Amino acid sequence: MEKDTGDSFVSDSPYLHAFDGLEEVHHQMEEDALISGMREIGYGLDRMKERELPNGKKFVQLDFAG
To answer: Which long-range contacts (CB under 8 A, 24 or more apart) does 5-10 make?
Structure first.
């Protein structure tokens, strides 16, 4: 899960147009809502790891166990 920190969830790059149309299926998710929803169906958060990206964004990994 990547945390958006700017206007676009796709960072500027020479390959930007490879992601054309991605906004049609992109859905920003909030960690708390995902954790809550997973808990409701019997899964608990096992591990959370955050990685800072060089473009000022953050990649968040959530691992669940049932």
So the answer is: 5/56, 5/57, 5/58, 6/56, 6/57
What 3-state class would DSSP assign to 7?
coil
The residue to which tokens 């790059």 are assigned? 13
Q: Measuring CA to CA, how many Å separate 49 from each of 8, 21, 58, 62?
A: 23, 29, 10, 7
Rounded distance between C-alpha atoms, residue 28 and residue 2, angstroms: 8
Residue 2, pLDDT score: 47
Claim: this prediction has a pTM higher than 0.70: no
Beta strands 44-52 and 58-65: pairing type? antiparallel
